[in-house]
Design a protein that fits this description.
This protein is of the alpha+beta class and 278 residues long. Helix content is 40%, strand content 16%. Strand 5 and strand 6 form a beta hairpin. InterPro entries: Papain-like_cys_pep_sf, Transglutaminase-like_domain.
Length: 278
């Protein structure tokens, strides 16, 4: 689902491994690549409670962090919430999440809206239209979080992951550093956690989604999706649903700064525009 936005917004630079030209023919014309090291998800670490910092209260945070650290964590959590609030209440929010509580018509309308807003070669206009239509996948949400983080003084990076093994899934998030420690901000998954905890957290979130009738799709097969919605049987999604093994294959291929030739998305003017949208 990120193919069209990335083909317009990025030109891939020095990726660590060759990637399908169809998926990543031009990944980062808007990103200055500062790290192309491979990051393989480590799923062998033992899970601990409350890895997602945005879900923790101040009392639990104080057991682990200093007050200065807590203040910064709180600021990032608020930015994650603000990013998601810009799309709140929309049945057309994400095109590659198949929801049992959304009609087939709403799923199709979401894709139509995404196709329309992604026709723009202007990054800031693209994102403004995304917010106005309350439609966006991980790429749009990560860009907006990136803009808000920079506006709040965080030197965020934009990160792209890809499934280099099977080419079934790619994903975009942001990275910030707090007191020398790196954290991932993922508005699409609604996650804010330490970089080292990210793999555990997204697997847990994906499992919760499945239990609640929400599935990540590698491609959209309308006949099968319609059967799933009719019978509430996920077996109809089995051939194209993103599963845990697909998430395990995610590899970081780009990490860097967003570069745009139009209105910079980190500018005060852009932030004022998106915050004024009703």
């Amino acid at each position: 689902m990120l193919n069209s936005i990335r083909s317009k917004l990025f030109t891939r630079q020095n990726t660590a491994e060759s990637i399908s030209s169809k998926i990543h023919s031009s990944i980062s014309s808007n990103i200055k690549n500062v790290s192309n090291s491979i990051f393989y998800m480590n799923l062998n670490e033992k899970k601990v409670p409350h890895l997602d910092l945005s879900k923790r209260n101040l009392t639990s945070l104080s057991e682990e962090y200093s007050q200065t650290h807590i203040n910064e964590i709180t600021r990032v959590s608020k930015i994650l919430k603000e990013t998601r609030a810009l799309f709140k209440g929309s049945p057309f929010k994400c095109g590659n999440k198949i929801r049992f509580n959304r009609t087939i018509e709403q799923h199709k309308e979401c894709i139509d809206r995404l196709s329309m807003i992604r026709k723009s070669d202007n990054l800031s206009d693209h994102l403004i239209q995304s917010i106005k239509s309350k439609t966006g996948n991980c790429g749009e949400l990560a860009y907006i979080a990136y803009a808000l983080l920079h506006n709040s003084g965080f030197d965020a990076d934009y990160i792209i992951f890809d499934d280099l093994k099977n080419k079934r899934f790619d994903h975009a998030i942001c990275q910030v550093e707090i007191l020398g420690e790196k954290y991932y901000v993922d508005p699409w998954f609604n996650i804010f956690c330490k970089k080292t905890d990210y793999s555990d957290v997204i697997l847990e979130k994906a499992n919760i989604w499945r239990e609640n009738g929400k599935h990540i799709s590698a491609r959209l097969v309308w006949d099968e999706i319609e059967k799933y919605l009719k019978y509430n049987d996920s077996q109809f999604l089995s051939s194209f649903e993103i599963k845990n093994e697909d998430l395990q294959n995610l590899t970081k291929i780009i990490e860097g700064k967003v570069i745009s030739s139009d209105l910079p998305i980190t500018s005060v003017q852009f932030i004022e525009k998106i915050r004024s949208i009703q």
